[in-house]
Recover the amino acids of this structure.
């Protein structure tokens, strides 16, 4: 991981070369960079199942509905300096969707819900820094999915984290009324 | 027919015969030498290790004949033989039997500790932590605590249960392996 001390903007982030070789994000304008991690079923299966479950939930909601998106979709959590992160699975608010113009590289503001699936190469520092950024920006609900332990740790601003294991359901109330999915179902192995 | 040459497995004796280094930590994982840069001297790490060492130590000395002895600062435990896994553990509880086998020249304690505690550091990779937990449990460690100074939580792993998380508002216990032990989690992170 390389960290530059210089502060850059979101536009500068997306203008960096070799975007296919690196995972990059901004924390308070500072670049964070990791070599692109291998795509594996261990990571991809929980991403897929959560996407499916969240999309299904969105379709039960009255308009205007949030929109599920996945695959490192960027949300600029805070600005000036920018904190801009790619999220594994997220719900964008109807306002964010409406404001997203052609050619935009990110949604502005925190997602309604963010889910991050841990990779073996993730460092504690990077994970914790992102959790702090999500919470500081007012993300209502953050799910940290551990495909090795088969657990989901739930973060809400101002509250201690709570861990759920594969004998339990992931429940989205009150932020996602009626959302429920068995945690054991999320994982590949 | 395999092209790969036979791997020579390293023993604990060979591990401790290597010239000591202040720059790298060394250990054995199933007979293979592992090294990583020393990164554990940050105050969040050292403070949590000392706090738990003290709290666990106070509990153990009440009855060392049944409770055993607390070790800190990455004491080596040979938790697996054939091939050998010999690792330094941040804080560990050696059983009375393990303690009785320690001599003045002993480099490591034989067998898995009752309790293994690892305090997370900024550069720890997720997969290294996962591998450590898995190896500890497979080798017979009864209780594994992963202490996270960032979130002020302790994740508890046991062979017979799903993982649990204890946060700063809650109390850590070790039943039935640490009878009578109680620790309000916030005390690990005080100061």
């Amino acid at each position: 991981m390389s960290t530059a001390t210089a502060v850059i903007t979101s536009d500068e982030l997306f203008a960096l070369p070799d975007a296919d070789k690196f995972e990059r994000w901004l924390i308070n304008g500072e670049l964070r960079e990791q070599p692109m991690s291998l795509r594996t079923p261990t990571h991809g299966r929980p991403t897929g199942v959560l996407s499916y479950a969240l999309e299904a939930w969105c379709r039960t909601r009255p308009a205007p509905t949030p929109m599920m998106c996945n695959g490192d979709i960027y949300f600029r959590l805070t600005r000036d300096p920018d904190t801009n992160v790619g999220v594994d699975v997220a719900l964008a608010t109807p306002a964010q969707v409406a404001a997203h113009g052609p050619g935009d590289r990110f949604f502005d503001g925190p997602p309604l819900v963010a889910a991050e699936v841990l990779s073996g190469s993730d460092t504690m520092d990077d994970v914790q820094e992102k959790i702090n950024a999500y919470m500081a920006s007012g993300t209502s609900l953050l799910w940290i999915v551990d495909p090795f332990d088969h657990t989901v740790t739930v973060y809400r601003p101002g509250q201690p984290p709570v861990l759920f294991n594969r004998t339990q359901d992931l429940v989205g109330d009150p932020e996602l009324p009626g959302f429920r999915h068995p945690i054991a179902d999320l994982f590949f192995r | 027919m395999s092209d790969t040459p036979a791997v020579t497995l390293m023993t604990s004796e060979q591990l401790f015969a290597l010239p000591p280094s202040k720059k790298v930590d060394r250990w054995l994982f199933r007979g293979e030498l592992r090294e990583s840069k020393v990164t554990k001297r940050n105050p969040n790490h050292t403070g949590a290790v000392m706090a738990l060492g003290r709290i666990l130590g106070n509990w153990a000395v009440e009855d060392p004949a049944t409770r055993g002895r607390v070790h800190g600062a990455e004491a080596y435990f040979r938790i697996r033989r054939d091939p050998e896994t010999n690792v330094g553990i941040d804080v560990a509880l050696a059983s009375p039997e393990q303690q009785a086998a320690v001599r003045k020249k002993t480099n490591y304690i034989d067998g898995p500790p009752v309790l293994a505690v690892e305090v997370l550091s900024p550069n720890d990779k997720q997969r290294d932590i996962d591998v450590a937990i898995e190896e500890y449990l497979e080798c017979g460690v009864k209780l594994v605590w992963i202490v996270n100074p960032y979130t002020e939580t302790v994740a508890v792993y046991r062979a017979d249960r799903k993982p649990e998380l204890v946060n700063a508002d809650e109390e850590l216990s070790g039943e039935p392996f640490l009878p009578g032990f109680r620790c309000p989690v916030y005390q690990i992170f005080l100061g």
